[in-house]
Amino acid sequence: MKTARELGLGLCPKCHKVNTMQTEPMQCVRCHGLFYQRNRNSLQYTLAWNIAALLAFIPANLYPIMIIYSLGIGDESTILSGIGQFVDQGLYPIAVIIFTASIIVPLIKIIGLFVLVYKVHTGVRLKPDKHSKIYHILEFLGPWSMLDVFVVALLVAVVELGFVTSVAAGPAINYFTMTVIFTMIAANSFDPRLLWDKKLIEQNGHIENEGR
């Protein structure tokens, strides 16, 4: 079975009209918008944004994400130390939620995107449909990373008892927010159709430029 790319067809991302690709960029016959058969430089953009997310993830875990003031004395808490405090207080469900949303989910997204980029670039990979499922899982997990930001914002808004006790967001919240945003942009920059193109490359026994 031939694919649309083999038949010289391309889908307009604006009006979803199937066009016969004559040139690139192609002007859609319906909406007259310009588009490419594959997202240009998809792997480069994904890799760049994912590296930026990894660099932001490091200070997000090193700097305090929350500062609790008690009698005017501030007690800084990083993500890991905050999780430890919840565990010490017996608040295991909250500790698990924070650990999952703040550590596990971002790492899964960052590592997963690196794996997809590497596999598409080298061709050493699982079946393309398996990688497509990985991509959709990573895309689904993106917004859940913001849960930790919402928890801190909620604590800042609710736990406010004046001079006795108050909570303020630490500098790590900015880096963590950037990590979430960068991973979401990286996932959106990745063109999952490249996974299927790579399968065609292996079947046909020749190498094409997967970004075109």
From TrEMBL:
InterPro entries: Multihaem_cyt_sf, PqiA-like, PqiA-PqiB_transport. One of its GO terms (cellular component) is plasma membrane. It comes from the Bacteria. Keywords: Cell inner membrane, Cell membrane, Membrane, Transmembrane, Transmembrane helix. The keyword Transmembrane applies. The chain crosses the membrane at residues 47-71, 91-116, 137-159, 171-190. SUPFAM superfamilies: Multiheme cytochromes. It is found in: Cell inner membrane. This is Paraquat-inducible membrane protein A. It comes from Litorilituus lipolyticus. The lineage of its organism: Bacteria, Pseudomonadati, Pseudomonadota, Gammaproteobacteria, Alteromonadales.
